[in-house]
Amino acid sequence: MVINQLPLQILTGLAILAFAFFWQTSLSGITRKIVARYHKRYGPKWYQEFRDIFKLMSKTGVTHGWVYDFGVMMALGGIMATVMFMPLMKFTAFPGFDNFFIYVYLFAVGMLGMAMSAVGSGNPLAGIGVMRALTQMVGYEVPFMIVVLAIINGHGTSSLSQLAAIQQQAGVLSWNLVKMPIGTVAAFICLLGMLGKKPFETFIAPAEIASGPMVEYGGKQLGMLMILHQFSIFIEVSLFMNLFLGGAANPLGFALKYMAVYVLASLISQAMGRFKIDQVIKFFYKIPIALAILQAVMVVYLGWGV
Amino acid sequence: MSKINMQLKELTENVGKSYSVLQVDYPTPNQAALDFQPGDVHAVLAYLKGQGFRQMSLLSCVDWIEDGQFQLVYLLFNWEAGLRLQVRTRIDRANPVFTTVTGIYPGAKYYERDVHEFFGVEFNGNPDSSKPLFLENWDDMPPMRKDFDPQAYSDRKYKAREYKTDFNTKAGEGQ
Amino acid sequence: MATADKEKKLKEGWEGISRFFRANSLWMLMYCTGCCAIELPQAMTSRYDMERLGMGPMATPRQADVLLVTGYLSVKTLRRVIYAYEQMSTPKYIVAFGPCTINGGIYHDAATVIKSLDQYLPIDVYIAGCMPKPEAVMNGFQDLIDMIKDKTADGWKRYRDNYDWYKQNQIESLGELRIKDEYHE
Amino acid sequence: MKEVKLFLGPQHPGMHGNSSIHMYVDGDIIKRSYLLPGMLHRGFEKSMERRTWMNNIALIPRICVPEPDPNEMVFALNAEALASVEVPERAHWIRMLVLELARLSAHLMAFGGIGGPTGLYTAMYWAQADRDSILTLFEEITGQRVYHMYITIGGVRKDLPKGIEKKILAFVDDLESRLPDYENLVLNNPSVQARTKDQIMLPAEVVWELGVTGIGMRSSTGKAYDLRKVTPYARYDKVEFDVPTATYSDAHTRLTLKYLEMYQIIRIIRQILDLMPAGKVREKALDGSALRWQVPAGQVYSAVEASRGEYGYYTVSTGGTMPYRVAVRGASFPQATLGIEKYLPGHRIDDAALWFDTMGICSPEIDR
Amino acid sequence: MAIRQEDFKKLIAYSSVANGGYILIGLAMGDALSVGGALMHILAHAFASAAAFLAAAAVVHRTGTTKMSELGGLIHRMPLTYLVYLIAIISMAGIPPMAGFISKWMMFQSMINNGMIFTAAAAFFGSIGSFLYVFRPLSAVFLGQLSTKHENVKEAPVLMMIPMMLLSLITLFFGVVPNIALGVINRVQTSLGLPGLALEGTKIMGSNGVLDPTLITIIFGVGFVVALILFILHPKSRKVGLMDTYTASEFIWTPELLHYAHDFYAPFERLYNKAPRTESFYRIIERKIEELGRLAGHAFFSYKPGTVVFWIAMVTVSLLWGGALWS
Q1: Residue C108 included in any domain
Q2: Whether A161 contacts A167, CB under 8 Å
Q3: Which of E269 and E239 is assigned the larger pLDDT?
C-alpha cells in the first residue's frame, strides 16, 4: 500500500461521499414528487429531503447511554467507508480494491451498528424491528449472492470497475441485463428487499411496530440515520447498476441509469402492500432463489452468460 | 299505533301466559315493551332467546330518582322477523344488585360493566363487573345518576378560562 | 470579549439557518386525540396535500415536532398527551383545534372534559371552527410556519421556564399524572 | 413463559381513533389482550339530559365522527315515534339521500383505510380524495362538511339547494367509473391478498355470541341481515337494492363486501334522485319556539343500519322539555370490547392493527 | 440450530459447530487460497469463541444464570464485558475489521474460482445466519431493559478481564494486519508442498480481487471520524433513563415487561418447524458430528499449542497424502 498516495485517495473518497449525498438526496426528493403524482397530488419541493435532514440536525434529541450513540456513529462510519470504495463513473478512490465482497461485508458493519444502537435504546418495538431486519437480510442476501457469484465466475474478476469495463466493450449488447436476464430479475427483487421498499418494508412497518428500529431516534441521531439511509440507497443502486447495466462512463449515462432503477423501484413499491415477515422469507426462498440458481447453472456449467 | 304487528301481539300473549307481565306498551309498530318482576327476567330472556330473539342489542339503565328505583332495560332483536322487544325490570336504588345475564347473552359482559360504572348497579356473577372501565381514578358518585351535577364537578376540578366579562349563561334549568 | 460576541454571532447565524429548516419541515405526531382528527386525513391527502408545506405524519413522539391537539381532551387523554409531549424532542410546538381546547366548547358542562388546555400545556396556534375545515387547518399550519420564522413560536420555552406552574395545574386537576392500577402494572 | 407487554396504544400509527389495546406478547403471538377504552368519554348521555330536544340536535352528531348522520336520524325517529309526528314525504327521501351519502363516505374511508395496516398508501390517498368530494357535496346541502345537523325532529331543516341533483349524479357516475380501479388496486393486489386472505376469521357462532352486526354479521351468517331490509325505515322499502352476503368471513371477504355495498349505495342514490316527490320538507311539530317543545312521556328504541352495523338510541321521555334519559348503542361496541378480549389472542402482532380495522371498530362509539 | 438456543453458552457452542463446517469446506477445496483461508479461520475462530466463552463466564459469574430471557441490559453494569463480546462476535460473523473476515474472504475467492455455486450459496447463508444468531445474545443479554434483579451487578473481576481483553486485542490485530499470521501459514503450506499465498506488503492477492485489510480499517476509521465530527458538531442531546421509551403513551412500570428477548426469531423458527423431517435428519448428523467433535476434542484439543500444531500438521499431511494418491 503506497503511503504517499493515501491522502489523495482519501480526498477523492470524500469527494465521492459528498457527491453521493447530494445526488441521492435530491433524487429521493424528486422521487417523492413522482410518487405524489401517483397519488393524484403535488408532492413537496425537490429539496424537501435536505430540509428534513438539516432540521433534524438542528434539534436536541435524546440519548439512551453510550451504546446508542456509538452504534449510530459506527453504522454511519461503516456505510461512509463503503461509499468511498464505490467506483463512480470514471474515477475510483482506491483503484484495484473495489472488490465486491468489501461492499457486502462493510455494509454488514452498518447493519450491525444500527441494530446494536436500536436494541440499545431499550424499546421492545426496536428489538422486534431489528429482528425483522436481520431475518429479511438473510432472505434477500442469498439469491443476490448466487447471481453475483455467477457473474464473477463468468467474468473472472470481482472488482466492480473491471466488471463495468467488460460490459461496456460491445455497447448495450454486452450488458449483463441482456446476457443474463433471469439473474437480473432475481437481483432486482433482492434490490427491493435491500432498499426496504414497500413489498418488503416489514422492518419499518409503521402500522404494526411504529417504525421499527427508528422508534427511539430523534434529533441528530435520526438525522444521521437518514443520511445513512441515503448512502445505503446510493450503494445498493450503483452496485446494481455496475453489475447489471454496465456501469457508466459518462455522467449522463450514470444519471439516466441510476434514476431509471431507483424510480422504477419506488413506483413498484407504491402499488404493493406490505408482506408479513415469514411471507417475505418464504417468497425469497421460492422464486428469486430458483431464478438465481438457474442463472448460476447456466453461467458456470454451460458457460452461456460470458 | 293501529297496525301493531300481529306476530308481536300473539307473542306477548303467550309470554304473558307463563310470566306475570306487569305492563305492555307498543311504542312503534314492530316493537313491544314488557315489564317484569326482577325475579323472572332471566327465565323470560332464556325463553325469548329460544323464540328467535338471538341478538341483545343493548342493556341500559334508567334512574327513576323520584320513586327511588333503577330500571334495567334489555333490548332484544329478532333478525328473521324484524321484531324488537324491551324487557324492563325495576330494582331498588338504595343497594342495586342484580344477577348477570352473560350466561344467556355473553355479549352483555361489557354492557354490565358500563352500567356498573355509571350507575353503581352490582352484577354478581360477572367476574370483573366492578373493575373501572371508562373513568380513571374517579373520586365521586357514579356519574350517570340523576343527583350528580357535572357542571359543579367540572368547575371544581378544571380551571375555566376567565373571561373579562362573565357572559356565559348558566346552564338551562331542569324541567 | 471579541471571541464571546463572535461566538454569539455565529450561534445566532446558525440559529437563523436552522429556524429556516425547522419551519419548512414540520413533522406531525400521528395522534388523533379528539373528534377534529377526521379532517386531518383530508388535509394530508390529494386535495389539500399537507406535504407541500413540508409536513408529514410521524409515528413516535421522539421524531415529531408538532403535536396536534385535535378537539376536546378528556382527562384520560390529557394524561397521555402530557406524557407524549414530554417525550418529544425540543423545539416542539402545539397546535390546538376548535373551541373545545379554548373553553371546553360544547362540553363545557361535561364531567370528564377539561375546560381550557393552556393551563396544562403551552399552545402556539389555535385554529377556529368546530371541526375546522381543511382550508382552516392548512391556514393554521401556514401561520405556525410564519411564527417559527419570526421566532414567536416558543411554546416549549414557556413550558420549560414556568415548568412548575404547569405541573401544579396538571396535578391539581388530574390527580396523579402516571396511573398505576391493575391495567398498567 | 416470559411475556413482553406491547401497546396498540392511544398514540399509534395503526390506531384509528383513540383507545388503547394492551397486548401481552410471547415471541410474536399475542397471548392476552384487553381494550382500555374511555379516552374519548365525554359523558354524552349526561349532557343530553341537560339540553332541550332541539339543543340535542346540535350535540349528537359529535358522538360518531366518521359517520354522524345515523345519530340525527335515530334521535329524530325516536322523538317522532313518541310524539307521533307525521314526517312529510319529501323529507323521507332527503333523509335517505343524506344517510346513503354518509354511508358511502364511511365505506370509502374504511375501504381506503385498509391501506394503513397493509402499507398500501395509494389506496388511502385515492379513497380520501373521493371522500373529500362527498364532503363538499354535504357542504352544499347542509352547510357543514362533517357534522351536518340536517335531519331534525319532524323532517329536514331546509330543502335541497337548486341543481344539487346534477352534481350528485355527476359525482356518482364518476365514482362508479373508477371503482374497478379500486378493485384492481386493493382486492386483486397480491400483497394485500397475502395479508387478508383467510387471516382474521369471524365464524358465525362468534357473531351470535358477541352480537356483532353489520358487515361482520352479513359476511359470516350468509343471510341479508340489514336493518334497511328487515325493519325498513324512511321509504327504504320503495327502493330496490340487494345486500351482498358471504358465508366464509375472513378479512378479504369483509373488504369485498364493503366494495360491493358501494355499488348498491350508488344504485340507491340514483333511484332516490328520480323518485323524489316535491312538497314540504318540515312538519311544524309545535307552535312557537322549538325550545319550549315537549315530547309526550314514553320509552322507545330505534336503530338504523350504519356503515359498521346497527346504530340505535334508547330514548326515555317524561313529557318534559328535555329528554329524561338517552342510551346510545354503538355499532362496534361488542366486537371492540369482548371481541378484543376473547378473539384477538392467538393472532400475531402485525395482525393486530389489521384486526382492529377489518372489524370496523370506531372508538368514539365505544366510549360515548 | 444455534438460532433456536435459549441458553447463552449453548449458543456459542453451536456457533463453533457452524464454523467447523467452514474449516472443512476450506480444507476440502485444496487450492492454496482456500487452505490458507481455512487455517486462518481456525486461528480466528479459536480466539473469537474463546473470548465469547470468557465473556459468558463473566456474565454467569455475576448473574448466576445463562437463560437469556432472564438477563437483559447488562451493558449498563458490565460495559467492558460487552466490548469484548462485541469484538468476538464481529470476528465470528466475519465483518471487516476483524480476523474472521480475512479467512472468509479467502475461502469465498477460491469457492468462486472453482465454480462451486451451491457450496458458495450454503456458505454464504451460513455466514449471514451466523450474523443472526451471534447478534441474538448481544441484544438479549447486554442490550435492552435492565431487569430489577440485576440492579447492583458489578463489572467482572479484574483477573477475568485481562485474558478477555488480550484475546480481543489479538483478533483485532490479526484483522488489521493479517500478513504476519498469513506469513506463518504460508510457511506451513509451502512446507506441505502447496503453492504459497501471494502476499505483498499488506495486500493479499486473491484469485479475482485484491484485499488490503489495513486500507479497509483506515477507511473505516476515516468514516468513523467523519461521523464523530457530525455528532459532536450538533446540539448535545439530554440523557434519558431506560424506562422513558415510546410505549404508545401508555404507562408501564416493570422493566421485565419491556425486554424483548424470548424466542427472538419466532417467525424465522416457525419456517423451520414446519419441516420436521429435515429436523430429525439434522439431529442424526449433529449427533454424529458431536461424537466426532468429542472424540477429536478429547484426543487433541488440549491447551498446549504444541500438540495443536502437531495435529493440524497430521491432518493436513493425511489430506495431502490422500490428495496425492487421488490425483
Answers
A1: yes
A2: no
A3: E239
Residue count (chain E): 327
Q: How many CB pairs under 8 A join C and D?
A: 99
Neighbouring C-beta atoms of residue B51, cutoff 10 Å: 15
CB C148 within 8 A of CB C23: yes
Cβ atoms < 10 Å from Cβ of B152: 12
Q: How many inter-chain contacts (D to E, CB under 8 Å) are there?
A: 43
Strand partners, D22: D7, D34
Three-state secondary structure call for residue A161 = helix
In chain C, the largest separation of any two C-alpha atoms, in whole Å, equals: 61
- Pick the residue from chain C with its C-alpha nearest to A39: C46
Question: Domain B6-152 has what CATH class?
Answer: alpha beta
DSSP D178-231: HHHHHIIIIIT-HHHHHHHTT-S---HHHHHHHT--THHHHHHH-S---HHHHS
* Alpha-carbon Rg for chain C in angstroms: 18
Q: Tell me which residue in C110, C130, C133 faces D47 most closely, judged by beta carbons.
A: C110
Domain range annotation of chain B: 6-152
State the CATH number of the domain containing residue D195.
Answer: 1.10.645.10
How much of chain A, in percent, has pLDDT values that exceed 70?
Answer: 89
Query: In 3D, which of E234, A61, A55, A60 has the Cα closest to residue C148?
Result: A55
Structural domain for E62, as ranges: 2-266
Neighbours of chain E (3+ CB pairs under 8 A): A, C, D
In a domain, E290, yes or no: no
- Residue D3 domain flag: no
User: Hey, are the CB atoms on D51 and B55 less than 8 Å from each other?
Assistant: no
Which residues from B are below 8 Å from C75, CB to CB?
Answer: 136
A82 Cβ neighbours under 8 A, 6+ residues apart: A102, A103, A106, A107, A110, A231, A235
For chain C positions 61-80, those within 8 Å of chain B (CB to CB) are: 75-76, 79
Total number of domains in chain C: 1
Domain count of the fold of chain E: 1
Which of C110, C175, C181 lies nearest to residue B150, judging by beta carbons? C110
Q: Do C83 and E251 touch (CB under 8 A)?
A: yes
Instruction: Name the closest residue on chain E to residue A128, using Cα atoms.
Output: E260
Kindly state whether residue C7 falls inside one of the protein's structural domains: no
Range of the domain at C168: 26-174
* Domain presence at residue C125: yes
Instruction: Name the stretches of chain C with pLDDT < 70.
Output: 1-2, 185
Q: What is the pLDDT of residues B71-108, one digit of tens each?
A: 888 888 888 888 888 888 888 888 888 888 888 888 88
- Average pLDDT of chain E? 72
Question: Mind listing the pLDDT tens digit for each residue in D328-340?
Answer: 888 888 888 888 8
pTM of the model: 0.85
Q: Which of the two residues, E292 and D1, has the higher pLDDT score?
A: E292
| Domain carrying residue D205 | 43-343
Residue E186 belongs to some domain of the structure: yes
The CATH number of whichever domain residue C118 belongs to comes to: 3.40.50.12280
Low-confidence ranges of chain A (pLDDT < 50): 1-2
- The whole-angstrom separation of Cα C159 and Cα E175 is 52
E317 vs chain A: nearest CA distance in angstroms? 30
| CB < 8 Å to E259, chain A | 124
Cα separation, D219 vs A95, whole angstroms: 65
**pLDDT tens-digit profile of A12-34?**
888 888 888 888 888 888 888 88
Question: Nearest 5°: phi and psi at C65?
Answer: -120, -15
Domain segments of chain A as ranges: 5-302
Give the other-Cβ count within 10 Å of A78's Cβ. 29
Residue C46 resides in a domain: yes
C and E make contact (3+ CB pairs below 8 Å): yes
Contacts of B157 in chain C (CB under 8 A): 173
User: Structural domain tally of chain D?
Assistant: 1
E126 near A CB under 8 A: no
